[in-house]
User: What shape does this take?
Amino acid sequence: MAYPLPTSEIVIRLLAAVALGALLGWERETHGKAAGFRTNVLIALGSAAFTLISLRMALHPGFRPDDRLDPIRALQGIIGGIGFLGAGSIIRSGGSVHGMTTAATIWVVGAAGIACGIGSYDIAASSIGVCFVVLWGLGIVEKRLMKNHNHHHFDASQDPDRAG
Assistant: This one.
């Protein structure tokens, strides 16, 4: 990868992250989730921007390899920050936990942002595409299964032969 990246490539990478974050953000927003459209866009954008910054620093001709500029460490920091955001979307209420899917979506959006930041649009688009299918497609399947499960669930307390 040549240094410096042309501004046009930087803008393309950032806009790709925004577009992919918007796709999942729209899906979350339409389902009334707290981490919706803007949140997912900003997570993807921030992940891409931090990745670009770490690449620029690592590839800058003024830095020597012994300057300890490691893009992998920067990615670890991004991933940790995304985990923190995801943890904030998880709510424990009584004996149940809510927000796990939103937290997982935040993780995927962050990964897509990182992929856009390094110019791996195929990984970014594939990740978002598969995640969208999981959220949308498996959401439909899950609702149908739960509807069938609840419909066929037998409540013994309503059985007149067992009333007592």
